[in-house]
Amino acid sequence: MADKQDFPTAVVVVAPDGVVSGWSEAGRLLLGWAAEDTVGRPVTDLLVDPPPTGFPGSFGTGSQPTGPIALRHRDGSTMDAVVATHPLFASDGQAGGHVVTVQCWGRRPVIADRAFEQCPFALGVYDPELRFLWVNASACRVMAHSEEQVLGEKYRELFPELDDQAYTDQLSEVARTGEPARLITVFRPLGSNYANAWATSMWPVRDAQGRIRAVANWGFDMSAEYWARQRLLLLNDAGAGIGRTLDVLGTARELASTSVPGFADLVTVDLFDEVLRGEEPPASPVTGDTVTLARAAENSAKEDTDPSPGPPVPVHHAPDSVAARCMITARSTVQLAAEPGPGGEWAFGPGLAADPAHWPPGTPLIDETMTAEGLTGRITVPLRARGALLGVVAFSRSDRPEAFTADDLILAEELTAKAAVAIDNARRYSRERTTALTLQRSLLPQRLPSQEALEVASRYLPAGSGSEVGGDWFDVIPLSGARVALVVGDVVGHGLHASASMGRLRTAVRTLADVDLPPDELLTHLDDLVIHLASDLQPDSRFQPAGESGATCLYTVYDPVSRRCTLASAGHPLPLIVLPDGTVHPETARPGPPLGIGGLPFEATEFELPEGSLLALYTDGLVRSRERDADEGISELLRVLNQGTTSLETLCDTAMETVLPGHRTDDAALLLARTHALEPHHVADWDVGPDTAQVPHARKFAVDQVEAWGLEEAAFVTELVVSELVTNAIRYGEPPIRLRLIRDTSLICEVSDASDTAPHLRRARAFDEGGRGLLLVAQLTQGWGTRHSTHGKTIWCAQTL
Predict the structure, then answer these.
(1) How far apart are CA 591 and CA 603, in angstroms?
(2) At residue 585, does pLDDT exceed 80?
(3) In what order do the strands lie in the sheet with 95-104?
(4) 296-306, pLDDT tens digit by residue?
(5) Residue 345 burial (CB < 10 Å; 0-12/13-18/19+)?
(6) In what order do the strands lie in the sheet with 746-753?
(7) pLDDT, mean of residues 231-236
(8) Cis bond upstream, residue 68 (ω within 30)
(9) Which H helix or E strand runs over 577?
(10) Which of 417, 628, 697, 749 gets the most CB atoms within 10 Å of its CB?
(11) Buried/exposed code over 385-404 (b: 16+ C-beta within 10 A; e: otherwise)
């Protein structure tokens, strides 16, 4: 038997009474029966089963193919066939029978036609001018037109309102180039108010000579997959775009900007004021009264909206408002626009967004006020994190006709949950940072002390908003003898621990400075303190984390009388010193190890500075960053210091603006000091012999000098304290003994001797002959003390002028 693909179409003529009156040669090839076997016999003898409706004998007037129908083959087998009937009419219009065409059901054109016609994908064939040549039933449903309505018509002329220009342009390109193409288009089909995503393949149809005769295409609605992918992309963007900074307002605005226009046309984020301030959110934020929040972020897809964020403004939500109910119930609320249906009932509008069975139970879907507000829908989600209510977020659609679906509700809640955690993290960070800043600023000097030895100016900037507060500090400490100590330091680590450690170290430095220790000895004592602090921070168990320990410190002492500067460094950068002629003083000192190492010495370096020299003490945060090494920052700072401006305040501002890194991750401190020298006539000294007979001479020397300075009112007290201090030095000290008077912001009296024994106050009994000298000095002056040197000690006292 020949292959079924080679079978032609058989033609059978059937008389009105159902008897075969004509039989084609193709009938013999198809069924094996010759004409003499079939003519004159009822056509129903060819059927295996009873004749279907419309078979000859009960034919209608149509010619619609019927199949598959089981026919008898001459060899006894059964063959499925497609039968089409065509009525015959005589010249007088009387029925003359039928012409029946028979095709093998398995023959390629037959089964292919049925397959293409019944394909669930939209299939179509166009001529090179994009006129419809053929479409299947699925394509007709998409276009809302029948095949008869579209055949021969040009696509763009038939559907000018469809927003699918990319589709027709690609069809024309395939017809022009002959290259197949694939395309994903998003457009609204006719009769629908929702944009669908269509995947389409196009290819040229060529004749035997290879000429392009038509363009065919198939497409299917991949809206579910497409919109699911868009949601995933939006979530991916949210993962990268929300929570980039530890800033409450910034995070709220990131949520609003990420959601528009990909998901909504308008997004508002309302937060409680306590959250914006970094405080704990209210325990019972929503009651029966109007709820007041702050509009932290608002973003609209409209072009005329101002994209620049403004300060938060109060917004009031009535007790019966959707936002208030949402916060009270801790459940999201969905509102969809609605319009009256044909029977007066309310139907989803415009168009059904999703099967209501897919929505969570109890979700209110229809709200007739949406249309009045110009919205197609709104999703309101409570902003909650770690069990606390932070505010509420509203996602609204207005410009697009698509109402929200159940999948959109899941996406809105996912976006809000991610933002809520980021906002709560930012709030907690803001609270800790504010606490650390408050602690740090309370521990730093509020204003620099008044003194004449140095002109000083300072600047301090905490780390950027994305970093924790560090432990940088600086200080200016007046010392005895008109000297001044300059201190700058940096504690390892960040946060509250670093601020607390900085406060401890600053207090310790001031305490040790009051003892008038030399810089190297002071750092040695400070090193011991840091080691003790580190041991105090050791955890009691492995579950208690220990804070970081260690610090760097630079301690410098300047004497305006001798114009000498003494410094020692514990791992801290040495100061930059610019001499009055603009040259840079060479660094001769060597920094010691950071504090907390222990067991290693610190070295003090002493050198003389001309009057008007500029010292710059700084921390690493000013000159170092991830994008720049410290040497580059130091060079930039030196360039600023050489600008020659006379105002240290201006110089500080310029240095901070110019040198400070753009992306700071550490605190930055800068302390500038310009040296002054005490005029020689403001200092007077006299050698005192180790004999009590020298005491009257010392008193007279002091009185004469004080009166020469025009300080007659201080002469009496000066005479008394000089008498006491010189007498003690002669009796209990060792020569050489020296008396020095200094006129500075105060009148300073110093008596030095070679003994290391330090005097101390004691309570004298009623009949004791001694023990009242230092008590008298302490009562008559505003301060007194002892400082030691390599050659002995100095007792000093100061009177305020």
Answers:
(1) 8
(2) yes
(3) 20-23, 10-14, 95-104, 78-89, 66-72
(4) 999 988 765 55
(5) exposed
(6) 683-688, 737-743, 746-753, 792-800, 783-789
(7) 87
(8) yes
(9) strand 576-578
(10) 749
(11) beebbbbbbbbbbbeebbbb
565 close to 608: Cβ distance less than 8 angstroms: yes
pLDDT tens-digit map of 527-546? 988 888 776 655 554 444 44
Report the distance separating Cα 275 and Cα 290, nearest Å.
Answer: 18
Which tokens belong to 3?
């292959």
- Answer yes or no: is pLDDT of 767 > 50: no
DSSP state of 63: -
Contact 458/652 with Cβ under 8 angstroms? yes
Least Cα distance to 115 among 136, 141, 84, 142 occurs for 136
Eight-class DSSP state of 698? H
Of 140-144, 160-164, 299-303, 708-712, least confident by mean pLDDT is 160-164
HEC string for 597-609:
CCCCCCCCEEEEC
Q: Nearest 5 degrees, angle CA 468-CA 471-CA 474?
A: 135
Give the pLDDT band of residue 550 (cuts 50, 70, 90).
confident
Decide: 471 and 460 in contact? Cβ < 8 Å.
no
379 φ/ψ angles, rounded to the nearest 5 degrees: -115, 125
Read off the pLDDT band of 365 (50, 70, 90). low
Each residue of 25-66: pLDDT tens digit?
888 888 888 989 899 999 888 888 887 766 665 544 444 566
Helix 406-443 / helix 223-241 crossing angle, nearest 10 deg: 0
Q: What is the mean pLDDT of the chain?
A: 82
For the cut 90, the answer to whether the pLDDT of residue 119 exceeds it is no
Q: Alpha helices, DSSP H only, in 197-242?
A: 223-241
User: Is the pLDDT assigned to residue 363 strictly greater than 70?
Assistant: no
Q: How far is residue 575's CA from residue 611's CA, in Å, rounded to a whole number?
A: 17
**Beta bridge partners of residue 70, listed in sequence order:** 80
Single-letter code of the amino acid located at 109: P
- Gap between the Cα atoms of 396 and 412, Å rounded: 11
- In sequence order, the 6+-apart residues with CB closer than 8 A to the CB of 104 are 4, 7, 30, 79, 80, 81, 82, 110
Label residue 275 left, alpha or beta by phi (over 0 means left) and psi (-120 to 50 means alpha): alpha
Q: Which residue's structure tokens are 């969905």? A: 334
DSSP state at residue 46: G
Residue type, 60: G
Chain segment 286-298, per-residue pLDDT in tens: 666 788 999 999 9
Element (H, E) at 132: strand 132-135
Task: Please report, for residues 281, 285, 289, 315, 420, the alpha-carbon distance to residue 273 in angstroms, rounded to integers and kept in the order given.
Answer: 8, 11, 17, 11, 15
Whether the Cβ atoms of residue 326 and residue 382 lie closer than 8 Å to each other: yes
The CA-atom distances, in angstroms, between 459 and each of 178, 362, 472, 551, 577 are: 72, 60, 12, 20, 18
Do 666 and 620 meet the contact criterion of CB atoms below 8 Å apart? yes
Tokens 């009691």 belong to residue: 540
CA distance 732 to 665: 56
Annotate 494-505 with DSSP letters as a single string: -SHHHHHHHHHH
Q: Quick one: tokens of 469?
A: 């507060």
> Residue 487 CA to chain centroid, in angstroms?
37
Q: How sure is the predictor about 2, in pLDDT bands with cuts at 50, 70 and 90?
A: very low
- Three-state DSSP class for 595? strand
332 neighbors 406 (Cβ within 8 angstroms): no
| Locus of tokens 């319009």 | 339
Q: Which of 16-30, 41-55, 437-451, 712-726 has the lowest mean pLDDT?
A: 437-451
In angstroms, the CA 173 to CA 176 distance is 5
Residue 434 banded pLDDT, cuts 50, 70, 90: confident
Residues in the chain, overall count: 801
Do residues 214 and 126 lie in contact, with contact meaning Cβ atoms separated by under 8 Å?
Answer: yes
Q: Nearest 5°: CA angle at 406, between 401 and 409?
A: 90
| Beta bridge mates, 797 | 749, 784
Please report, for residues 8, 84, 104, 461, 781, the alpha-carbon distance to residue 5 in angstroms, rounded to integers and kept in the order given. Answer: 8, 19, 8, 88, 126
